[in-house]
Amino acid sequence: MYQASNVYFICGFAAIGGALFGFDISSLSGTLGTQAYKRYFSNPVSYTQGGITASMPAGSLLGSLVSSFLADKYSRKVALQISCVLWIIGSILMTASQNVPMLCIGRVVCGFSVGIASAIVPVYQSEIAPKEIRGRVVSLQQWAITWGILIQYFIQFGAAHGTGGGPSDPDQPTAAFRIPWGIQMVPAVILFVGLFFFPYSPRWLASKDRWEEALQVLANLHGKGNTRHPKVLAQYQEIEDALKFEREQAVSSFKALIEPRMLKRVALGMSIQMWSQLCGMNIMMYYIVYIMEGAQIASPLATASIQYVINVVMTLPAILFLDKWGRRPSLIYGSFGMMTWLFISGALQQYYGQPNTEETRTPDNSDITWIVINNRPVSSAIVSCSYLFVATFATTWGPVSWTYPAEIFPSKIRAKAVSLSTSANWFWNMVLAFAVPPLLWNISYKMYYIFAAFNGAAFIHMALMAPETKGFTLEEMDEVFNSGRPAWKKFDRGSRLEELEREIERGNVKVSVPPGGRPVAGDPEQGVELKKVATPPAGNPIS
Ligand SMILES: OC[C@H]1O[C@](O)(CO)[C@@H](O)[C@@H]1O
């Protein structure tokens, strides 16, 4: 059967899983302010709305936790296909929902699906990509998320504002806002079918001792199908060495995640995902409409949509340059920038805002708006801060929160560890989805200060604990993390992969790749000797 072999194409296509994530994020924001939605779902008050919003990340939390079982047992590919099927079921439930509980059940099922996809897409991408473009291709997941958010928002916006009894006609609201929940099934069907034509991850194949297939996939991806290409052999050898080492060390169970030598990385992966939520991005994604309303912006839904465009456009620099800039500066400068925008926005609201009361409220404000700003330049400044915040997140934390956790763990526990770090994303996503409306209502601008402080904490944490990972292969990460250097000190030993490749080219190292079965170093039957380079490719990864 034909199998795709272009890394960009494969990783871009797999990123449709990210688009599903995006659809879910904005599956409510275009509808929230409409009469039709309020009418069908009994005009949800802040707590109910928080609950409806949070039902999806709650499902995703569960999905991300089980994702590694599926990905390790049935492969990354099949796990993604399972996620597509669940997405379709959840979307049907949402589209047909007649009340809040049914809507929530649909959102939980969709969330479950997205939880699996969000953990497994980056694992699959990082295991397919060569190290030089790994940051870029895993960033495609985030780019797809931002596209998903944008597309879904606009489809919703159009559907919710259709003629013939739309939000402008409170007596006769249409159910057109359901259309996007139906349309969102299409990409899942495409992804499901497309995945049949995609290769298994070579690292997963190797972990199942399907060595010949692993070699062939590596050859297709990196050597134009030639299994004897030095580049291919070097990667193959590196994977084999690392896996052998992991097996010797029994690095495969959940227990391995809490061993002291691994715990540091697990904590870092989980914290990065936690900070990606506690930075406050989803206040903008989920509730920007309320911010716009409070700032007295005419047509808040349309103005809010600008942030979704900014989110898509500003993820592009990361896709282009992340492998050049590195992950560490993105994390550090990103949190500093976001802290600044939130602080300014909070201060403007503190000094120029009035509480939302009968007197201050205008017909444009819903009773859920927490603060009212009656000063045009200040309103514009607040909205600008929101846009700058989104732009900063999009170029930095958005993509890096996926690339970093997907690249720092050894093969045998990668899916488990990424599932755990992704679950941290969903846990905090859920908490915030639920907590933000009541928080905005009860402490208004102070909430901005709290989130600014979270960004300050992330800044310090990353500066102290997150080493640079660009330019190293997945198999070299053990050394990056166990070099004993502080995170801010550059670990500038060149990648060993190139060294190994050169040695293979010169004929100093021979890699035995027997047809069928696992290659054995120096296997006499193969008549090929495997000489190691001075420092073994997997080094002493974990000690
Ligand atoms: O682009 C914004 C989106 O990105 C995420 O942080 C995932 O990386 C989502 O939680 C958020 O809604």
UniProtKB/TrEMBL annotation:
Region span, Disordered:
508-543
Q: Identify the residues that the record assigns to the Major facilitator superfamily (MFS) profile domain, covering every copy.
A: 10-470
Q: Does the keyword Secreted apply?
A: no
- Give the transmembrane ranges: 7-32, 52-71, 78-94, 100-124, 144-161, 181-200, 266-289, 301-322, 331-352, 423-441, 447-467
InterPro entries, A to Z: MFS_dom, MFS_sugar_transport-like, MFS_Sugar_Transporters, MFS_trans_sf, Sugar/inositol_transpt, Sugar_transporter_CS
Bilayer topology term: Multi-pass membrane protein
The alphabetical list of record keywords is: Membrane, Sugar transport, Transmembrane, Transmembrane helix, Transport
Q: Does the keyword Transport apply?
A: yes
One Pfam family named in its UniProt record: Sugar_tr
Location relative to the cell: Membrane
Kindly give the NCBIfam families that the UniProt entry links to this protein.
SP
- Family indicated by similarity: Belongs to the major facilitator superfamily. Sugar transporter (TC 2.A.1.1) family.
**What is the designated name of this protein?**
High affinity glucose transporter
Question: Which source organism does the UniProt entry give?
Answer: Podospora pseudopauciseta
* Encoding gene (name): HGT1_1
